[in-house]
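Today's session is about reading a structure prediction critically. Students often jump straight to the picture, but the first step is always the sequence itself: look for stretches that repeat, for charged clusters, for runs of hydrophobic residues. Only then move on to the predicted structure, which in these notes is written as discrete structure tokens rather than atom positions. Here is the chain we will use throughout the hour.
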Amino acid sequence: MHACIAAIANPARQVHRIVAATQNADDIEIPVCDAANAAVQANSEVVRPQIEWRDRRELHALLPRDAVHQGICVDATPLPHPVIEDLIEAADGLSSACIVILDQATDPRNIGAVMRTAAAFGALGVVLQDKNAPDITGSMAKAASGAMERLPLVRVTNLARTLGQLKAAEFWCVGFDGHADDYLSAKTLQGRNVIVLGAEGAGLRRLTRETCDLLVKIPISDAVESLNLSNAAAIALYQFVQSNS
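Below is the predicted structure for this chain, in token form.
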């Protein structure tokens, strides 16, 4: 529901079709109309289609097999592709700022969950390496719970080169590695930071680790080997906010 409502409310998003289940009309109709009105108020050129009311079984037929929904789906044009320079420009003049980089993340639901967390804590954007990264899908947007409309998702060819660009723009690049010698602390993420997280299991690649300014680990019990990617992102971003408040 949140992903669909956010897409409808986004004046930069071209929405072609809104289909909702009649069984969920009481929960859906007012939020959808409010979202469509908000988009039109923000951009007078926006045209939002009327809701097509269908039985839930018809909605199932429109969606991929095993897709989980809350009685609504939206057909929309993809958003423009942001570039790393957009994030650098957004940080211009800020004494504290944060960008999240995901090294080798391939699960669209994990990426969506990280986007939701990054948006909640005020990050400027999330960066992925284009190679092997999944396309933006319904499952990613659902996991992002509306953050897809508010937070740039930047795809780059070379993470090490991108880290170099961010260093030149006065960002401190902190890689999270379970084998690091230093722990995440209250002083680690002060100022302008890039939080670099590796995929679950594989972690950070060698060149990514070597390009970071600092490697740290989150202090956790020996009872578990590592944290879920989105949980690690939440802890890191919370510490960033605390360090700069």
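Discussion point for the tutorial: The longest strand covers residues 15-21.
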